[in-house]
Amino acid sequence: MYKPFKDLSTTTMNTEQTINEVLEVVNFLKDNAVPRQEFDSLVKTVGSINQRLISVEENMVTKKEFEQFKTEIYAHIDGFAKRYEAVDQELVVLRSKCERLEEIIFKMAKHLQLDVNQL
């Protein structure tokens, strides 16, 4: 003969325990669940932040690109520095040449007995 319940008191206790567990879960959800409107708002905010991050990723340079740009800038600066050195050297040469020409002019003026200050 089949007996579905061995002991009715055990079944009643199990049922009460199950009901208490379900009530505990329900109370936890009630206390900790996020309302649908607040959840939707959070989803919208996260979506907006995600879009901004995607935009930042698309527009920012990589370290490799930055290093390449830096190398190009340094190359241009080196070019300007070399040109400056060349111009500076040329200026020294021109000053020396100008001083020699002034000496020659003063000697010629003295030989011709001209007053250079009146010219």
Structure in words:
The chain contains three helices and no strands. It has one domain. Helix content is 82%, strand content 0%. The chain has 119 residues and is an all-alpha fold. The longest helix has 49 residues. The N terminus is likely disordered.
Task: State the gist of this model.
With 119 residues, the protein is mainly α. It is 82% helix and 0% strand. It has one domain (33-118).
Overall morphology: rod-shaped
Rg, Cα atoms, Å:
47 Å
Number of helices: 3
Strand content: under 5%
> What low-confidence regions span 5 or more consecutive residues with pLDDT below 50?
1-5
Helix content: over 70%
Instruction: Average the pLDDT over all residues and give the rounded result.
Output: 87
Whole-number tally of structural domains? 1
Could you tell me the number of beta strands?
Answer: 0
Main sheet characteristics: none
Question: Helix and strand layout, with pairings?
Answer:
Elements: H1 8-32, H2 36-59, H3 63-111
Relevant terms:
single chain; 119 residues; mainly alpha; 3 helices; 82% helix; disordered N terminus
